Automatic annotation (TrEMBL):
Sorted UniProt keywords: Methyltransferase, rRNA processing, S-adenosyl-L-methionine, Transferase
Domain Ribosomal RNA methyltransferase FtsJ: 27-225
Keyword presence, Transferase: yes
Matching CDD domains: AdoMet_MTases
Claim: Secreted is one of the keywords in the record: no
Active site per UniProt: 182 (proton acceptor)
Protein name: rRNA methyltransferase 2, mitochondrial
Protein family per UniProt: Belongs to the class I-like SAM-binding methyltransferase superfamily. RNA methyltransferase RlmE family.
HAMAP family reported in the protein's UniProt record: RNA_methyltr_E
Pfam family, one: FtsJ
GO molecular function: rRNA (uridine-2'-O-)-methyltransferase activity
Amino acid sequence: MASRARITRTGRVLEDTFFKKAKAQGYVARSAYKLLEIQQKHKLIPPGGQVLDLGCHPGAWLQVACESLGPLKKGGRVIGVDLQETKRPDKFCDERVTIVQADARELGAEFWLEHAPGGFDAVLSDMCHFTLGNSVADAYKSLELARTAWTIATGGEEAESLDPNMPWGRGVLKPGGSLVMKLLQGTGTQEFAAELRRDFTKVAWHRPKATRSESKEVFLLGLKRKQ
Ligand SMILES: C[S@@+](CC[C@H](N)C(=O)[O-])C[C@H]1O[C@@H](n2cnc3c(N)ncnc32)[C@H](O)[C@@H]1O
């Protein structure tokens, strides 16, 4: 007998093409295809590069990031951070992946000293809250998390008033590096994109094919951090 698709009360198909593909290929979540698509288009993660993955649970972006580093002998590393305890996926991840259970909003100098002495080539944020079903509040909360990622990467809106010689005062993203942030479209997102232009050579939007059609999710990319 043919298996039937699992559908929620709101009509969302749970086990869609990307879900099945992820299961067949060994990714721990369908979200892998979002980063794969972004990486294919923008090549943000260089072979042997240094990657920070904020909101890494259950680990699909860790898998894609580690794969993108190339073979182990190329070096590189991926630091994943999440509020939830996260096990390093066996497939596609190797010893270059380190996972820290923490709130990204509270990472301080001690953390960066240990994990980012030389900075990162790519800072990725797929962080999101549980959505409340109120599109204005959900968009606002997603903007707050994206701003957290921006502050970690470049110092954010405070950067200009900070002492550039202060360790990590200007963020952990290397010049030339790139930032990816998940957002739910809503009030303030366009203004946020405009603010990023101060820090990046190019600012772009990306809505991956794996994003569900009913979702307001979109990724904002800051490409090639200015010196
Ligand atoms: C959509 S999931 C990430 C999926 C992940 N990129 C993957 O592909 O497996 C969003 C994650 O963001 C995390 N998160 C939300 N707020 C956070 C915060 N302040 N600090 C760290 N992680 C956070 C949540 O715990 C959740 O696991």
